[in-house]
């Protein structure tokens, strides 16, 4: 399990390639009135894991305590499947020790039952739109979309015992924000303990057995990802208000801005910024990536939904269930990372370190550094390309990192050993 601790920003721990354990992010101030937010228990429900990820990365908790698990079933997210080995949300009454989901289920159960957790919110994307009466094939009592789910009306002894009252309040708030009348939210009480054999195995009912006030929020699979995520965020914010969590976010909450938040640039760093990419508009394949010889790639990211996975052609980079790019490595011994290098950008000198990205309007020129040669990928004038004025017109666009042909890698090598010593990115404006 990956443990991330966050108060005013996210700190992401280094991971090995193929590590698909879930992330656990703590935000705010430790408290015995902690809200636990969970997304991604089913990998074909992106609204839930995208909403939880946005809260984990973009929301600043100014009062109260919030714990976030945005990618509980990370392997199923990567495979865009409900579950890789059955439905994880049916394994909370019992999970076999040999089940591939065993570790994740046992670890999330420990978090749910933690003495500090007072309210649990599990995010789902359900089919169609729930209605108390049959309207049509998409809107009827058998559907799960647009619902606030509870297992029972009350949970005596819990921090927040009035489950139906809280769910009704969330429903009312959501219905002030609906984009279309067909999206109207309802409360759905599964009355699990009265004999719902499937729900008896679920995460929220397990939370109820631990005397935790538990809810599920269901957006509709009939909607696109940003609309589902929007509805989840509206619900999450209202639940946070109920438990006294105060927060700020860097955008106005609407569908357009949610889409921007989903698609914003994500930083991916290998070996503590020896090699860095910014995941936006990426080419589907990047060749000759300088990875460390004799070592599985260690990486970190500004977003917990990013994974680096070994395949037959190199390493596949995923953002949730979206393929981003494939890295085809070239292996090097690593030198000590360059501490800084001076670069003249449009005639102005700046000092940068490995992993930085600089923006260039006209040209850049790398100051020669003793014992280091610079290789500008896509320029190709010689072995060391220091002390040359390099313009975008000089660059071969097929070597750019991005599809738009604006971003290029500058790699630094120790001489005469030819050990890799770091890199930075240049973005032409």
Automatic annotation (TrEMBL):
D,L-carboxypeptidase peptidase domain mapped to chain residues: 33-262
Domain of life: Bacteria
Span of domain Carboxypeptidase M99 beta-barrel: 276-333
Chain ranges of the Metallo-carboxypeptidase C-terminal domain: 338-428
Signal peptide: 1-17
Keywords per UniProt: Signal
SUPFAM superfamilies, A to Z: Zn-dependent exopeptidases
Protein name stated in the entry: Deacylase
InterPro entries hit by this protein: Beta-barrel_M99, Metallo_peptidase_C, Peptidase_M99
Pfam families, per the entry: Peptidase_M99 (PF17033), Peptidase_M99_C (PF17129), Peptidase_M99_m (PF17130)
